[in-house]
Task: structure prediction
Amino acid sequence: MGSVMPRFTGAVLLSIIVALMLTMIPMREEWLLYRPEWVALTLVHWSLVAPNRMSFIVAWVAGLLVDALYGSIIGQHALGFTIVVFMSMRMRTRLVVDNIFQQFLILFLVLGTYMLVNLWILGVTGNAPQGWVYWSPVIVSLLIWPLYHYLMRIYHSRKKPFDY
Result:
């Protein structure tokens, strides 16, 4: 399974910045629970299609930016995003990138682990949310994944006909 090349040098960085901007969009309190995990989805996308362009340092820095944005414990999201990239790269060899059902399974495991790490850190600090509503971003992220993954292809370069 080959990886694709980004269309331009800063494609990964630009897509993470766009994901951070989508995360910062102000929403009503009751709608915040249905906000997808934009940065995690972006990291999974690049880990699946271009693993040579994704690194743990990029995930860590993106996590620190999200920590600063949310005002959470420094390193909480950084640890989660690093685990997201590790799991995505590790499971990449076990799936066909074009098979959407395998992508759903991988995405469910990866985002579920990310949310579980955040829940564990929130529980240790005494800020654990109550109820199953905490898991709604995983479901919303799964629902928008096919469209998001398709739209992220604007950052990919087109291969030449005989480019192997």
About this structure: The chain has one domain: 11-155. Residues 17 and 39 are 9 Å apart (CA to CA).
